[in-house]
Fold this protein.
Amino acid sequence: MDREALIKALQRAEVLAPTITDRIDAEVIAAAGDQLKLIANFGAGVDHIDVAAATARGVTVTNTPGVLTEDTADLTLSLILAVARRVVEGANVIQAGPSPAGRPPG
């Protein structure tokens, strides 16, 4: 949704669930209808939302803190194990096909 469409939608919306790519600045908030009550950010931060402008209009701003904590930890551990066990290198060896005389390459 481009900025113009977002403003048009906000003129009738009660809740906005923006993503990190949506810039919700004071101008956008000022153009919203009086029925806007909540900006429920679909992400961990609110850097792209003018919280002061929203608060001044009585609009609550929320986010989802900690939503990526476990996933980040899982990915980090997976990468550590992949490096320690040479997973990518092993996958490349397997995809290269059989080595001469059926011995592992190397």
The first strand starts at residue 15 and ends at 16.
